[in-house]
Write a structure and sequence with these properties.
It is a single chain. This protein is α/β, with parallel strands linked by helices and 473 residues long. It has 15 helices and 17 strands. Strands 3, 5, 6, 7, 8, 9, 10, 11 and 12 form a nine-stranded mixed beta sheet that branches. Strands 13-14-17-16 form a four-stranded antiparallel beta sheet, covered by helices on one side. A two-stranded antiparallel sheet has the order 1-2. Strand 1 and strand 2 form a beta hairpin. Helix 7 packs across helix 8. The chain is globular and about 65 Å long. The N and C termini lie far apart (53 Å).
């Protein structure tokens, strides 16, 4: 029996709770009955129950079994999507980013919901320490020398082997190691577009990629993305009839910020679109490993038949942000991406590549993920429950199936920039929605990270945010 079978059982019980088969206040079936139903040990079922307890969904009562406390789905509506396609235009940096960066550096006492970065206590610190020690023991000194531009061959092989988890078939030669996912996206853009070219992105979209597009002097068209299902492919086809599009940049799994995940059918159709139109599709699948369901979702590259899909990813969100190890599989553009990498910064640091190789090859990374994913799901559910409890009526919130962030639509009269300023004064950081659109849309939206360990301080900060929002109504 697979070691994560208890997660599948917990997921199944969670669905039964959410659909009302076991309403709030009702007892769940006994450990023995569930053990028989799923053909697993009592210990496995108990682990599933502990997971549901950690999520705050059930409570164990002495001599009374386990009782349902609440559903994991909130009663709040989903955030509304933008309705219009933007005209092609240059990207304009939002100056608020610089102010937020200064706050991060100047005051460590802030409760930050701004950065989508794992709390340090969620990192596999012991495994990382051992892997770094192992990497530095090489008496040949290879860890101190330049690595080849496309990255350590053994690391590229390990990453390629992992592609079977998302139904891919990569070889080591298909993979290029980069300094984080943002460099991977930037290299892919440089390989297929020139200054003044037009790029299609989803809206809302991660501001870091918008900055990368700006730095390259590219124009963008923002395509509305539904909070659940992402972009409309008919709209994409229409945009490509009006504009000469150099590339499409998407986050197919758990889009940052709204958490949307493209269906497998839509991913398949996007790969076919790229091949038919000969327009590269760059898929930033940085959150794919942080899924809450049992199986890892596919990405657009899973369905790529002719090399027009350029997959980007990173270990910054799942292992440690300071590693800065990203990678891409640029398909037919691999040779050009490697050349661009070599003239940009020669190569990615050797010792960190060797450390990550050790984590992947020994199974330490997968053991870490099996612990991390349920904890991230629990933290997101606790945050959702706090929002439902403390934020005013009219609040809408996303319910992603993975990743680190929530996208929140506040009552229409609330200005997120004003809320941001009030929050800073109260030593709380949030990300205003206008950061995620070139048109400064989403005036009454915010993004918050759910990657802080849950403490009374975190809950108090969310309660304070709710009070501020009520004051701004």
């Amino acid at each position: 029996m697979m070691t994560f079978q208890y997660i599948a059982i917990a997921d199944e019980l969670e669905k039964l709770i959410n659909t009302g088969v076991y309403p709030v206040g009702q007892k769940l079936p006994s450990l023995r009955l569930i053990s028989s139903r799923f053909q697993v040990s009592i210990g496995t079922v108990l682990k599933a129950f502990v997971l549901l307890i950690d999520k705050g969904l059930i409570l164990g009562k002495e001599r009374s079994g386990y009782v349902v406390l609440r559903k994991s789905v909130t009663g709040e509506d989903l955030p509304q999507s933008s309705k219009t396609v933007s005209p092609a235009g240059a990207v304009k940096l939002n100056p608020i980013l610089h102010k937020i960066s200064r706050v991060d550096q100047e005051n460590k006492s802030f409760v930050s919901f701004f950065n989508a970065v794992l709390d340090v206590d969620l990192l596999p610190l012991n495994a990382i320490r051992r892997s770094l020690q192992h990497a530095s023991r090489d008496l040949t000194g290879a860890h101190l020398l330049y690595e080849q531009a496309d990255g350590n061959p053994l690391l590229r092989q390990e990453i390629a082997k992992r592609s079977f988890r998302w139904n891919g078939m990569l070889n080591a030669e298909d993979v290029v190691i980069t300094n984080g996912a943002l460099e991977a996206v930037g290299l892919c853009l440089r390989a297929v577009a020139e200054k003044g070219d037009t790029i299609v992105v989803e809206t809302p979209f991660y501001y870091g990629i918008l900055q990368a597009i700006e730095a390259l002097g590219l124009k963008i068209v923002e395509l509305p993305g539904d909070t659940l299902s992402g972009i409309d492919l008919d709209q994409l086809e229409q945009v490509c009839k009006v504009h000469q599009v150099a590339a499409v940049v998407l986050i197919s799994n758990f889009n940052n910020p709204n958490g949307a995940m493209l269906s497998d059918q839509k991913k398949r159709e996007l790969a076919a679109f790229a091949k038919r139109k000969k327009i590269p599709v760059i898929d930033d699948d940085i959150y794919g490993d942080l899924h809450f369901d049992v199986d890892r979702p596919a990405n657009i590259k899973s369905y790529d038949e002719d090399g027009w899909v350029m997959l980007c990813s990173s270990f910054s969100k799942s292992v440690a942000p300071g590693y800065r190890i990203g990678w891409c599989a640029p398909g037919r553009f691999t040779e050009k991406v490697v050349r661009l990498k070599s003239v940009t910064n020669v190569a990615t640091a050797s010792v960190v590549q060797l450390s990550l190789l050790q984590l992947l090859s020994t199974g330490a990374y997968d053991r870490h993920l099996r612990r991390l994913r349920p904890e991230l799901h629990r933290l997101m559910l606790l945050t959702l429950q706090a929002i439902e409890k403390y934020f005013p009526a009219g609040t809408r919130v996303s319910r992603p199936k993975g990743g680190l962030v929530l996208w929140i639509e506040l009552p229409e009269e609330v200005d997120a920039l004003s809320l941001h300023q009030k929050a800073i004064e109260a030593h709380i950081q949030i990300a205003p929605g206008s950061l995620f659109s070139n048109r400064a849309d989403y005036r009454n939206y915010i993004r918050i990270s759910c990657s802080n360990l849950w403490t009374s301080k975190i809950e108090a900060a969310l309660q304070k945010l709710g009070s501020m929002i009520q004051e701004l109504k």
